[in-house]
Amino acid sequence: MSSERAFVDQACAQALFDALPAEMQWPTLSPAYVAADALRDSQLAPVFLVSQEDDGLLMHGVHEAHVPGLEARDWQSAYGYGGPIVHHMNAEALTRAWRRLDAEATVRHVVAEFVRFHPALENHHFYPGTVFADRAVVVINLDTADLLSSYKGRARTAIRKAERAGLQVSFETQEHAIEIFPAFYRRCMGEIDADNFYLFSDAYFEHMLRLPGARVLSVSDGEKRLSMGLFLFGPKQAEYHLSGTLRAGRQSGATNLLVHAAAQTAQSSGCLSLYLGGGTSMRPDDPLLRFKESFAAAHLMFRFGHRIHDPATYARLREGAPQLAANSKRLLFYRG
Hints:
This protein has helices spanning about 10-20, 30-35, 90-105, 145-150, 155-165, 175-190, 200-210, 255-270, 285-295, 310-320, 320-325; strands at about 5-10, 45-55, 55-65, 75, 85, 110-115, 130-140, 170, 215-220, 225-235, 235-245, 275-280, 300-310. The longest helix is centred in the middle third of the chain and has 18 residues, at about 175-190.
């Protein structure tokens, strides 16, 4: 028996997500996360697309936005990761499910769709569009008796240096994290001249920090916080989301201690892995990737994909801004 519904509200989507096997419940794929992340931009609205057949499920959570100057929309993944969640569907059922979702795209006048797949779930296998491999990413396997020994030498050395210096680790309460983390994070981004995209608003942080699995970890020298990170915890996995380290803490091993403490906490709470992600570029010698590789080998691959739902309208968009379309590598080039 199949369900013809394709567009459901957040509560329904969350109930379906929470009923999945624990190993599939990656925090950044949760409808609650998709909805919270939409608050970083007033143009975004969370949309949850669902097709069910017998006990099979296809769920696709996206951000929907109006295309400038047109009575049309586009879809894209939340910041971080997205893509389809598929459970108990064979190839034929999955084809029928995508047809239902494509019919919804037609009704909603969707021109194009851009997806960032979750490397740990490898959900690109279920996507009917074009898929590209992008960069290597890191996940720490927590199924080990001695986490510290599983890291590479430079990570172990930095963690021990931080501990010898007397740096302290603590988790912030939810309310205190809401009060202090946004300003701390933006201060750290300012010190490295980060793009304005990363200067998220207080409203974004408040909703993100109120997610059930959100926890903020701090590394301090006495009363002074040197590094803070936001981690998202699921039933069997944890994910690094955002962090910042002040200039004063970068040579002290504070960030290494932050990641190690998060891994220890995830392990003690029953998680089997801590996902760290990759670097800021595709280069194998990317400094951020090298830092993360000091905790575990980068054996997963981040991929992205796209589909053009309305080729004629998309072609008109490119014709209307030929230089922008030619110079941009982004599918949704008109978004800047």
